[in-house]
Amino acid sequence: QVQLVESGGGLVQAGGSLRLSCAASGSIQSLPTMSWYRQAPGKQRELVAYATSGRTTNYADSVKGRFTISRDNAKKTVYLEMTGLKPEETADYYCYCNVYLWTDARITGYWGQGTQVTVAS
Predict the structure, then answer these.
(1) What's residue 37's pLDDT?
(2) 5: CB partners within 8 A, 6+ apart
(3) Could you tell me which of 59, 26, 109 has the C-alpha nearest to residue 69?
(4) Exposure winner among 1, 4, 34, 117, fewest CB in 10 A?
């Protein structure tokens, strides 16, 4: 019913920048929260940042001041602008959205398929 498609990952040198995008599609009434997580090899998935429909944002301490999350509600898209990237931030980055469907009164969470970010030293 819902698809989240991420893009924008790739290989970047340490200190470089990347912009990730995640577009949601399907029978979506609203997206209360849109988030980015990451999972490095051998590590647990961790929250990087989230943005609510009310424009509240929150970041992991490790990325504050370097990453910026934003969303375009009309396009049902969330972005993650990443600057000053570090080799230890090499990971698969996942979009996660809480979704109100037109066909269901409950909020349901959906994951994207992930996009790989590699930061070379």
Answers:
(1) 98
(2) 22, 23, 25, 112, 113
(3) 59
(4) 1
